[in-house]
Design brief:
Layout: E1 2-12, E2 17-28, E3 33-38, H1 44-51, E4 59-64, E5 67-68, H2 74-81, E6 84-88, H3 99-109, H4 114-127, H5 143-155, E7 161-165, H6 173-190, E8 193-198, H7 201-207, E9 210-215, E10 218-224, H8 225-230, H9 235-245, H10 249-262, E11 267-274, H11 282-290, E12 293-302, E13 309-317, H12 320-332, E14 336-339, H13 341-344
Bound molecules: adenosine-5'-diphosphate and magnesium ion.
Length: 345
Amino acid sequence: MITLKDVSKEFTGKNKAVKAVDAVNLTIQSGEIFGIVGYSGAGKSTLVRMLNGLEKPTSGTVTLNDKIISTMSGQALRKERRAIGMIFQHFNLLWSRTVLENICFPLEIAKVEKTERIKRAKELIELVGLQGREDAYPAQLSGGQKQRVGIARALANEPQVLLCDEATSALDPQTTDDVLDLLVSINKKMNLTIVMITHEMHVVRKICHRMAVMDGGKVVEEGEVLSLFKHPAHPTTKRFIRQDSDPDSEDTDEVLRELLKTYPEGKLIRLLFHGGSAQAPVISHVSRSFNVDVNIIQGSMQSTQETPIGTLTIQLLGEEAAVEEAIKEFRVYRVEVEVLNDALQ
Ligand SMILES: Nc1ncnc2c1ncn2[C@@H]1O[C@H](COP(=O)(O)OP(=O)(O)O)[C@@H](O)[C@H]1O
Ligand SMILES: [Mg+2]
């Protein structure tokens, strides 16, 4: 439904040009939750602003439902833009208006008649769970409540697509989860296509079906969330995934290096469990069958839209051949195995 073809955006600064987005090709399907993850400055916001025509590409085309919006302007663009709602990190609410009035605002612009406006705004208030706060002002709301107003307002004109630019980045972890749950329920209930722009991998991991990783204006990797978690190819993707499963990854690496010094003969491996393999008692089976000792160093569990995934960093000690066989056995159980010895030296 949204297609980007060879999209680039260059900004001309004082003495040099910045290529904020560099030859991006992407297709976002109707009804999916698509994540775009990247570090600050990767070009995410510029990309998302081209999706709703707020920014024009220097070259390439952006197509929404077979209409090329990257060349539209004025009335035609405004009409197409109604199909796209957007929410922001800092909510961008009108501070002098109540919750109800904020949500009515886009309906006023669309010239919806007053009683209809209020009826629709009240339905939206219910949808986002803000009943009873209709007359509150933004300053009287918590961050999570403000974002709920942002979501309700973005949905007022019944868009097909919701763009979220760092929409949970200003919220605490619990509130982030609540807002993500709300977005998933709206995605299901209304078949709304959602594009999540974020520098936080856990946001994408929890709710997205597919994702793209951006670095230096380019999409360096894309695919289904679970398959990128299983087999990340690009170093940037690997870094994001590692930080998500082990926020103290630098400490872990320090411990691993020490272990390697003490037991140079052992193998340090990282295991990734998903689906059925997360339930089988694989570790004890492998340890017993091959007479290898297992030293557990770090582990965590994460949820994704499809299935939970777990990572476990362990050390295998034993006869060299037995350790090799143990690694093969893990793979039989469909546990992904990454040997870390070389990477750490
Ligand atoms: N209006 C602008 N003028 C000049 N440079 C810009 C402008 N907007 C963004 N940039 C530059 O483009 C790059 C990508 O920015 P942005 O899209 O905001 O990244 P992100 O959202 O991933 O942090 C950065 O180097 C930024 O400084
Ligand atoms: Mg940004």
